Amino acid sequence: MSELSDLYQEVILDHNRRPRNFRPIDNASRTQEGYNPLCGDRLTLYVKLDGRSIVDVSFQGSGCAISKASASLMTEALKGKTVEQARELFDRFHDMVTSSTDVAAPDLGKLSVLSGVREYPTRVKCASLAWHTLKAAVADGTDGPVSTE
Amino acid sequence: MRADFPILREIVHGKPLVYLDSANTSQKPESVIRAMDDYYRHANANIHRATHLLSERATKLYEGTRANVARFINAPDAKSIVLTTGTTDGINLVAASYGRMVLKPGDEVLLSWLEHHSNIVPWQILCEQTGARLRVVPINDLGEIDIQAYEHLLSDRTRIVAISHVSNALGTINPARHIVAKAHECGAVVLLDGAQAVPHLVVDVQALDCDFYVFSSHKMFGPTGAGVLYGRKSLLEAMPPYRGGGDMIASVTFEKTAYNQVPYKFEAGTPNIAGVVGMGAAIDYFGSFDRAAAQAHEDDVLAYATERVRAIPGTRIIGEAADKTGVLSFVLDHAHPHDVGTILDREGIAVRTGQHCAQPIMDRYGIAATVRASLAIYNTREDIDALITSLARVREVFG
User: Fold this and answer.
1) Residues of B with CB below 8 A from A128's CB?
2) Domains (range + CATH), chain B
3) How many domains does chain A have?
4) Cβ distance of A41 and B335 shorter than 8 Å
5) What's the pTM value of the predicted model, to 2 decimals?
6) For residues B205 and B70, is the Cβ–Cβ distance under 8 A?
7) pLDDT along chain B (399 residues), means of 10
């Protein structure tokens, strides 16, 4: 059995207390709502693109520590990436949080602090909400809010 | 009493289970588990259909439960009891059958802000289909229905009033008898959602004078997938069938089908017979203890829990009605309910966190979710002590 401290690592608690890039972007290229109706978590993701490049990304909303920290860490990881790299990171993050606990979690650098949610199946959706919202935000020709349900 | 519930001896995450989620679903006593096991070992057959001994046994158990349910809620006649798959099924039945029969454009259906999604959405669907209008009775800050507003909203356009007897999210006991009497003065019929009431209160549908009363087996120590719709017999008789199929017919030709009598005309297809048998055993279980003493015990545990949780700095209790039962909903200023739920779970404590299928109430209080500790007869002050100790653990993590 994993320890609670594997889930609530100091980095996560810190990003929960002081989420980074927690602000709107006035002239965002993409604005996307994400919602988890099961727990009521909701966030708005703002992405500013220059061509295919993510020059700024931020979020606002309310949610549990895991969803907030995940969104905060995500915005830090995305700056300077291309849309294609962001999509690839989505896949890798998704694999990390849904991978079997029998194998070592793939190394995603700073984002690896969220690998602890693998031990908590009910919390995987909390960690993925921001990422699903991102996927919708950078998809071509989508609109409407995304939901993790 | 705890000894009657085998699952309460379970160890979760290395800790003894403290089950505080009975409003979600209750645990089952040994007698219910045994009744269902016995049914499959000694009586399993289809009901109302065959001439052999097992079918006779199954039919007797199934119809015996119907009579048992009628006694349990003091219905005038076992034939006014429709066996359903649960509360949601019962509400959908009334909305689709009675609702579509009577509602015309401009008519109104009256609900309250306290309703569970299952007592909102079927009526919304019905209103969309019929052109009727959904009206919602507000609640006050304590989580009580605003009775003046209710009486004000009632009019000769009101056809149906659908209100919970006890709120699932806040535990408020609504003044059901008064609600029914006022609705009847306007000629409206009343459906009471009793899902959260039957496990705690002695329910008497004749004293309440309601037209429909619905509840689920699984919240009252019975199995999932079984439930009850009590209906005033004259209404049930006038209502068209809800679903077509076997057992709900008297005769079928391709030209014309004659429906079976009430309540069978609402029970198409092979029902959840074992579930109904288990529900019957759950009702018998209620007969094995003193209801008034059990209610007093639950009230004591709830009052103790309220006092202990209120004493934690940064806690806000959601729902402080003068008359409530079984539920303590709260939020902490230092931790989100979902995180609280995970930490409590690791301490062996099962609570529900989230919106409790009652999003409008969360919106009413301007919150996204609550932690809900909900009680049943098997809970004790020791369970609450364990909860309080673990809430201190939440403070350590999020402090």
Assistant:
1) none
2) 2-23+290-398 (3.90.1150.10), 31-286 (3.40.640.10)
3) 1
4) no
5) 0.93
6) no
7) 96 97 98 98 92 94 98 98 98 98 98 96 98 98 98 98 97 98 98 98 98 98 98 97 88 88 94 98 98 97 98 96 97 94 96 89 91 98 98 90
